[in-house]
Hints:
mainly beta, Immunoglobulin-like, 3 domains, 44 strands, rod-shaped
Amino acid sequence: MVGLRGWAHGCVCLALVFCGCGREPLATETGCEEVAPGDVVITEIHANPDGSDGDGEYIELFNASGGVLELEGLTLVSSRNDGTGASQHRLGDGQVAAEGYFVLGSGLESLRNSEAALAVRCGEVIIDWVGYASTRDGRALELDGRLVPNDGSNDDATHWCFAPETASEFSPGNFGTPGAPNSVCEEAPQEGTCREGETRRAIDLLVPGKVEITEWMANPNGPDGELEWVEVSFTESADLYGVRLGPQRGSLGKPIVADACFPVDAGTRVVFGASPAAAPRVDAELDFSLGNSNERSIVVAVEETVLDSVDYVGSEEGRAWQIDPDGVLCLVDAQPDHEYREANFGTPGASNPSCAPVLEEGMCFDGDTARPIRSPSAAEVEIVEWMANPSMAGNRDGEWVEVLFKAAADLNGLVWSDLAGAATMLEREECLSVPSGAYVVFARNSDGAENGGIPFVDAELGVSLNNADETVSLSINDEMLDSVSYERSRPGVATQVDQWGLVCDAIAPYGEGDLGTPGAPNRPCL
């Protein structure tokens, strides 16, 4: 209506949806002369129903006259918003109670879906007029339900909105409130604000330092497009409003939430999933794909401000990458208590376990603690017995060497070699500790049922002992610790060195009957 009465004399668009035209009142006698401008107010227009437009269109009128209103003689006119292409429908007998609604199935050829106007006239006198620029399929255009309907309130384009999904679905796919008070229009978003419940407030904006990416599944056991996820942890409370994720700064996805505040408390872990099935709990959508190979990155940002980013190389199927409480990057261990779905290991939405410590060179694990390896010196190590030609087992199974350690040491890093140049290093992450005075047995086979009954095997012997003309050496870090050479060996008899350094054949039986004292002091040579 725009405050003028009459028909179009040129139009001007007021907003995206509504347009207003100047009009001049024209008097006439039609039988509705008692209806004054503003007594009837257009409050709802359904011009674009879901389905056939002609079958579902309607216009809702409100009686603002203060008394019972006779509708006979009034005319409804539909046209373009410049007044051209008009069609009209004259109303018959009918009454509307004070502050009551009257719903008219348009009765016109068809309401226009865009750049259109509607008018209620008594003869040539404009009782009410509304122009609209566009419609939405299945959604009625409503005057804000918080307002008292009158010919002033429906002039303002900001007082109109499309029926929300919370409005009545009066027919399949069609939302509106025909014949009832209108829906409440949402407030227009204000810069720097977000919606929390029914109100708007200032955004508690995320800034760098408030969030960190703590875990992600790049290569799930199953379809990547459904089961990938990223976990983001909040170090301080803030709103998730406007957060975007992507593989790099220049390739960020759409904001996770466009208008809702989505407040998150400090300590909360938000899981972004490719689908609801990605993790036991998915809080928001992940709208980009994580890479499985080569160098990759994940970025979390608000608008163009990067809040945090992580880099990783490759992946292992079914194991999530994580940042542990100490800030260490690793793949989650494939342990039963980390399996959140079949053959997929991680802790989405829960605190991350500590990564297994990474050993530096020259270190070993003593329980859960890493410490330097205690390597023996040449003065602390002596090869004192060896079985080169067993009888109760084949050479591959029954050979062994005994070493006396004169001081406590670790076996880690010891290297065995022979005349053929073969060399085998004892490589373990755990500390292979032996006490001072220990007789340590290195054997080809640790199974007592197969090695001739060796009482106890401490470590693997990685070289084969020739029956004759052989030299066996033990070293560490290219330093020779000890070496023995022999010209012959008797079948089933170990060669020993006694406490005075004399070399002789062993005489005590062990296991299944071969002679030697593996793991025990040697008897004196006679």
